[in-house]
Specification:
single chain, mainly alpha, two-stranded antiparallel ribbon, two-stranded antiparallel sheet, 15 helices
Amino acid sequence: MELFFNFLFSILEHFSQDGYKVLLCISFVFLVYKYWYLFIKEKILLLSLIFVLYGFLLSLFCSDTESAVKGMLDLSYGWVLALFLGHTLINENNKIKVLNVTFFVFAFLVFIGLFSYFGFLPEKYWGLRFADENQLRIFTHRVPFAARCELMLMVSITLLLFKKNLNKRYTLFLSIVTFFFLLGIILSGSRIYYGVTGIMLFLILGFYYYKTRALKICLTITAIFILSIFIAYITNPELSRRIHKTSITKDISISSRVNMHKYGISVFKQHPIFGVGPAQATLMEEFSKVKMDKPHWHLHSIYLELLANFGIVGLLLFLSIVFSILISLITEYLKDGSALKLAMIFAWFAVLIGDYADAVLENAFISSLYFWLTGIALAKPKEESSTIKKETLSI
């Protein structure tokens, strides 16, 4: 049953529809009787649940209760239910199977999207959008799409570099999907994740060199990254325009973010403890007076978004969740050397850096993938003792 639901999620989640949310609810109903103890045993899951309950409580006092409840439902799906589902997949062999499926499905969507990007197919077909304005953005906007690519890139490249005993076929598979995930980031046009990817590749390759001293591999991957950006830059006018116009003072996209950040700070100062309520900051009349390039539904910073909407209490709860995730992943990685746990450490650092200028972790379409894979990485049998049995296929 656990494998069945995780297998379905690994496919359905990539299609930005309500179907994966329904699946999360159904899987919870079927599995909670067996795995209810996770809400007591797993600190991350408990903290996520507390945050969601806190948000629902705040919703009762909001002027726009409907928007507040909708925002909290998204966090329920993206954080709590996705994390719970991932935690139920305790078999190491099944983890590999599910991970490979989600790699393949997402890489295949990027591959199909390239035909739209280069004009061989319409930008929108089957009722789904694959590209827009010379930017690859499958089923969503460029920054959320880039964040999804970043997660998949962090996992695939870390497995490729750090997983032991890889056979040639699996090495080839990981190499291909890693290239597609990197290509997805570059062609998305997201300058935020250009910077994030550069930082994270530097950290990953630095750690890899520290562990192996394989300088040639590090230089090769760096060269591929730089060459890919250069080719995209000289062949895509829209991409080169966005990079060229980057300026704190002249780029209206950046200045809009700065203005929204200032607004978020002002809202926090007025409501410092509990904030104005879930999803309420951008619904206030004062927000419409902020000078922006276009309408926005969040403040383009997860930290200011949480401060404004949930107050200092909400931000501290969120930081507790993130801190627990990183501590758990690092602790478990030091115990068993799992490449998947190491990958999720890199992935969380990436999204936390990127969300300084965005708020993708509030979007269930993105956050559910992060929390689900985190649950899978940390999942282990209930009766597991302090001595962890190491398996040949462990990831």
